[in-house]
Amino acid sequence: MGDHSADIDRHVRIYVVVFVTLMALTLITVAVSYLHLPLPYAVAVALAVAITKGSLVACYFMHLISEKRLIFMVLALTVVLFLALMMLPIFTVANRVEIQ
Amino acid sequence: MEIPWVVTARQDTGLNNGKIGIWLFLASEVMLFGALFATYILLRVGAPTWPLGSSILNVPMATFNTVVLISSSVTMVMAWASVMRRRFAAYRGYMGATVVLGFVFLVVKYFEYSAKFHHELFPRTNTFLAIYFTLTGLHMLHVIGGMAVNAWFWGPGARLYHENPEWFANRVENSGLFWHFVDLVWIFLFPVLYLL
Hints:
The complex is a heterodimer of chains A (100) and B (196). Chain A has 100 residues and is mainly α. Chain A is 78% helix and 0% strand. In chain A, helix 1 (5-33) packs antiparallel against helix 2 (39-61). Chain B has a single domain, classed as Cytochrome c oxidase, subunit III, four-helix bundle (Four Helix Bundle (Hemerythrin (Met), subunit A), Up-down Bundle). Chain B has helices at 17-46, 53-56, 59-84, 88-118, 127-154, 159-163, 165-195. Classes of the chains: A mainly alpha (100), B mainly alpha (196). Chains A and B meet through helix 1, helix 2 and helix 3 of A and helix 1, helix 3 and helix 7 of B.
């Protein structure tokens, strides 16, 4: 990414916008929890907000939005392995394995 | 001895070595926390009953800590931007604020843990508390680790700024990547443990 002074000024303006958005999303996720939605909806909303917040942090604070291809390749592999890890409990439940 | 590729990018990777190193490390960290999140799901769906996080844990305190950690991510990225703009005094201020905010997070966590222990709520008490203390404890160790690195670059490590500011900017960026990752993990821990 270009790191000239004008670029940095632009970065800083973006950081402020991202910060305000993250604060607003934090308030939303806490407010929604007080609505006591049925669990599947509560999980869906909480995860959607968390994924949005996480993406903002990764894209802008961690500069992923302008990162090199090799980093994306590393992260793509990480996503595949992470999803496989999340599948383990789902398969376990699907197979009705009892947990003692 | 001159260490190669600390500032300039390698032709084959397009990156300096520090950058690719920290991202590989963060990838391994995703799997570490991923294993514990998978454990959480397995324990939760396998349990006959599961308490609502807010019935045991202190949501206002955790919300405050979320705000603290997000703010510290902003001061961290502003510290990097200050080095890039060659404003050393501003860098010192932002990096110092990042370390202080990390400390505030730990103090709040100390009060949270103390309240639990005071009410005889320990990791051995039930499965929910076991995974709560494991996940937040591991996260807290990461906060302490990140604070140690950031404090080093605020204090003695800042000497490098005067010798090689570009190299120093890369180091601050890489320690920032770790710090943002710590923030990112908390962004998921907070709703999963406290709100659901």
